[in-house]
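Trying the structure run again after the queue cleared.
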Amino acid sequence: MGDRHPLGIGAGSLAIMTQFADAEVDAFFDANDRILAERYPKVSVPGLKDIIRRGRHDGFVHNPGLFAQGSWAIGVPVRIKGRQPRAALSIASIEERMTGARVFELAALLHHEAHQIAAAVTDRAASNDELSDRDDAPTGMEGHL
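Done. Tokens:
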């Protein structure tokens, strides 16, 4: 808790990265190459890119214990129409609980929750837009004191 990792370390950030073009992913890794080499020497950028590629295909990322031995994770992006990806949901657990069909069950649950969050954010943004439209509407009192 309270630890910070660069983009690309952890299932949530890998899930976010599935939403960016390859050139942007390369730029993220290039920007953090020193940190990755110093703090995560066992992690390879080509391996992370492979997880991102598979995540694009599968709709979720699966981190098989790359960052902490025995701790596996899955993640899905929270996709909000018309916005850059900025959030993800992830679950981490011991290896025995993150293999086989269980991975797909958990990914489906995460997708459901991600859709719920995206819908709530979209609805709230639409409500805020409606309120600001009303604030800008003429009141009939312009020019009168």
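The helical segments are 11-17, 22-31, 33-39, 45-58, 101-136. Worth checking whether this holds up in the mutant runs.
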